[in-house]
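Homework-ish question, so no full write-ups if that breaks the rules, but can someone show me the predicted structure for this set?
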Amino acid sequence: MTDTLGVPTSRPSFRSGLRFGPQVASRVGADWVSEPYTRFELVPKSPTIGAEVVGVDLANLDDDTFADVHRALLEWKVLFFRNCGLDPEAHAALGARWGELEYHPFLANRNDHPVTVRFEKNDDTAGFENVWHSDVSWRAVPSLGSLLRAVEVPVAGGDTLWADMAAAYDCLPDDMKQRIEGLEAVHDWLDTFGALMSEEERSSTRQNFPASVHPVVRTHPETGRRTLYVNGIFTTEIVGVPADEGDRLLEYLCRQADYPEYQCRWTWQAGDLAIWDNRATQHYATSDYHPQRRVMERITVIGDRPF
Ligand SMILES: [Fe+2]
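A: Not a homework solution, just the prediction itself:
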């Protein structure tokens, strides 16, 4: 079913039979050769995305085990480690195994560890991050991945969800895939982080952080999978499409992350670590635990320019 601009709506179509949501997608691309993991145990959290890694000492990761952790990250897109045993130094050192670490210009960083973003949530900061996104997609060179460590967690609530955006792309109708082929979209920080700034601060910060344009469908640089790369918080418009039509198209594409078939969910315990691939996923932090406190620390690894 489509609206007047030809954009599919979320209402099910009985004309195509009793199929309401997406069909099951595959976890990996057609070219991926699955090999067993012999250095640790992997416990899947959903059929396509998310696995808990059991039996790894993250503070003393030899090169072969790191290579397998990275392979598992490409295959499962999000990895979970219970009671990871990392302090802030070891957390950053682990992130640096993947590449150069990012300094986030807008979020609160630890004074003693400028690359560590500290999320300290209370009543005043309720309702941040409960929107699907890929970290720092507004950068010209966005993030490869993020490593989030739970410092203090609520008794209940505060789960994080991830969505497999390659599965989301795979399950788009063929005519939609054709329609978005080759399209690009603008990603910007102005409506989010910039909303808390004065006009002067916005324009001076703008000099250093212009909006970026990325493909609507990017190709994962390591797996080769096509992946939907627009998100509901940083993507502001689709280039070259009239605003009315573009807004609805963008809304439809962003809504794909909502399907539970593409998701996994993690209930945090203090000391847990999650590592995710920002090139393949989006995430959503539930904001259901206030006024309890939730303290998390994040290390973000710089990636590559999307293509
Ligand atoms: Fe995030």
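Now go work out the reasoning yourself. Hint: The mean pLDDT is 92.
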